[in-house]
Amino acid sequence: MTDTLLSVKNLTLNIPTGSGTLKAVRGIDFDLKRGETLSIVGESGSGKSLTSLAVMGLLGKSIKRQADEMRFDDIDLQKANRRVMRDLRGNRIAMIFQEPMTSLNPAYTIGDQLTETLLLHRKVSKAAARARAVELLEKVGITAAESRLSQYPHQLSGGLRQRVMIALALMCEPDLLIADEPTTALDVTIQAQILRLLVDLTREMNMAMILITHDLGVVARVADKVAVMYAGELVETGPASEVFAAPSHPYTRGLLRCIPQPGKTERGAPLGTIPGIVPSLIGDVSGCVFRTRCAHARPECREAIPLRGDASHEFKCVHPDGALSEEGEVA
Amino acid sequence: MLPFILKRLGLALLVALTVSFISFSLLFLSGDPAAALAGETASGEDVEAIRRLYGFDRPMLVQYGEWLFSAVQGDFGESYYFKLPVASLIAERLQVTMLLGVCGILFALLTAVPLGVAAAIRPNSLIDRVALFLSVAGQAMPSFWFGLILIVVFAIQLGWLPPSGAATWRHFIMPTIVLGYYAMPAIMRLTRAGMLDVLNSDFIRTARAKGAGEGRVLFKHALRNAIIPVVSLAAVQMGFMLGGSIVVESVFALHGAGFLAWESIARNDLPTVQALILVFSMFYIVFTFLADVLNAWLDPRMRSS
Q1: N or C terminus: which one in chain A shows less Cβ crowding within 10 Å?
Q2: By CA distance, what is A168's nearest residue in B?
Q3: Which helix (H) or strand (E) holds A179?
């Protein structure tokens, strides 16, 4: 057994559309060790969710997946057939989705849906599966867990449903948990609770987690590693502490400036924004994808951009050290 | 679940009562029943005598109460034409109609639902096009014409099936197909639309993320949600088949309740018409009630509303 749990090299996702091929994800690399939390950050449409679905093998039929390597533990995900993928999903790789209100089947009880996962993957009795469901509901902080089993999703609030979704993902004690914007649809007070819960659980179960979010505040609190994604590419990856201390890509710096900081951000001062919009990914996409919105764009930004930095903290930008003075940048 | 059933049952009873009053009023809406009974050549005195004999001279509400009281006991009076109790007349004819209706709806469901599901799994595939063609053809062909075509091909030219009558199960094959095919397109399209909709929902993605196989995803997670509107539609169509199979019964000379209704209207046989309207309406009410209960079982959200 290797230390690396998940390894993805040069992942590319293409979506054929009426007006050409949409190059949704281009040449992404990342890996994840056991027990580690990787946060993929980026704005809507940057390909974060697609990347996670690609790992799960749950992409729509029309999306073309290519990669030099996609390995989960000892399993080559590119060669895995449907049977192997089915055995992995819900069992060793579990996923939590963004929309707790619609992610549970309205026709079945919470108990039915929780136990289904365990019964699909393990040879256990129904009673044992129910006991496990109660145990996990308690673990995710749901009171009167026993009686919740006979309730239906519509009888629960959004926060409770997301807790149920988390319990559902943990039924088989997965090695990897993919959380796709798990707190976006929830109230701010609930967001913090759910996040804390996820962090505690991953530590307790020594579970690796890919946390997909557009909220950098979330990342700072939980992630070991950060991967900043922009328009289908990873523009900067590295240990969370380093990326936050020394953001090297102009896009990362732009994102960080968008977060108001109590005490630092002046009252009444405009919040940081990144001007411009994400470029079209249909047709020829070359050079730095961020150059159309970047204050430091230079002619060489049209060329292929090499990865810079050291092995742990890498970024895709032509500026030699990345640590540019902040003055020249548009706020 | 029980409060929901009781509430629906109460509603169904109210509807039934309303329908019974309307169907009773028909007797008076269609002119003077005594004059109609007595015939065109009768004198004024004869009409008056008949009016007293049948009790038409009493207040309408009293007559209604009396009629309803007998009706709930299964006594619908005597047919003017057959001079037989209406209840036994209808009971005899209803056997054929009910057999045909049940076969028809089963045929429709057993063809439409699998076809709708298959079409939804692969939209725009060959099977989807075939399903579309069958449903358009079903909607476009009038029942009487389709029935006649079947008779010409399978009874007259090929000689495989009897053209008319109700003596054996083979007599019911063609009427079942004609009646069922009429209901099939709507059920098929609703199943297809429902499945397409549900298969794109988040909880189906959750089911796949759990590691459920395709069969389980389709039938346990998707179909149960997609079938809910189909249940309501099938209930209405079932009611229609039991009450409105007049055309099919005529084409295949099946003397069922639909045929009796048509005969009785033509003969001005009001007690029979009244009773048939009431019976047909009851079918609608009963099937809608059953569909509501079935839907509440399928979809827990309906139980609370």
Answers
A1: N
A2: B210
A3: strand A176-180
Of A90, A106, A152, the CB nearest to B225: A106
Residue of chain B whose Cα is closest to the Cα of A155: B301
A112 at the B interface (CB within 8 A)?
no
Nearest-10 Cα torsion for A263, A264, A269, A272: -130
Interface test with B, best of A56, A89, A105 (most B CBs within 10 A): A105
Is A165 in Cβ contact with B207 (below 8 Å)? Answer: no
Close Cβ partners of A204 (under 8 Å, ≥ 6 residues apart): none
Tokens representing residue A78 in the block: 């590119």
Region for residue B187 given its phi and psi (left: phi exceeds 0; alpha: psi -120 to 50; beta: otherwise): alpha
Domain B87-304: what homologous superfamily? MetI-like (1.10.3720.10)
The conformation of residue B85, written as its DSSP 8-state character, comes to B
ipTM computed for the complex: 0.85
Residue B298 to residues A101, B34, B212, B290: CA-CA distances in angstroms? 19, 51, 20, 12
Residues of A in contact with B205 (CB under 8 A): 58, 97, 103
Q: How far apart are CA A164 and CA A214, in angstroms?
A: 23
**Overall pTM surpassing 0.90 (yes/no):** no
- How many angstroms separate the CA of residue A173 from the nearest CA in chain B? 12
Whether the predicted pLDDT of B305 surpasses 50: yes
> What ranges do the domains of chain B cover?
2-72, 87-304
Which residue among B211, B224, B225 sits closest to A121, beta carbon to beta carbon? B211
Q: Which has the closest alpha carbon to A114: A155, A143, A150?
A: A150
Q: Counting one residue from A and one from B, how many pairs have CB atoms under 8 Å apart?
A: 65
> What contacts B17, CB < 8 A, 6 or more positions away?
none
Q: For residue A229, with 0-12 CB atoms within 10 Å meaning exposed, 13-18 middle and 19 or more buried, which class applies?
A: buried
**A86-103 b/e (C-beta count within 10 Å ≥ 16 → b):** bebbbbbbbbbbbbbebb
Place of tokens 């249940």: B231
**What span, in angstroms and rounded, lies between the C-alpha atoms of B81 and B135?**
42
CB within 8 Å: B211 and A120: yes
**Residue reference for tokens 């057939």:** A81
pLDDT per position as a tens digit, A183-214: 887 788 878 888 888 888 899 989 999 999 88
- pLDDT tens across A220-258, in order? 888 899 999 998 889 999 998 888 888 888 888 888 887
DSSP secondary structure letters along B248-299: HHHHTT---HHHHHHHHHHTT-HHHHHHHHHHHHHHHHHHHHHHHHHHHHH-
* Strands A4-17 vs A93-96: parallel, antiparallel or unpaired: unpaired
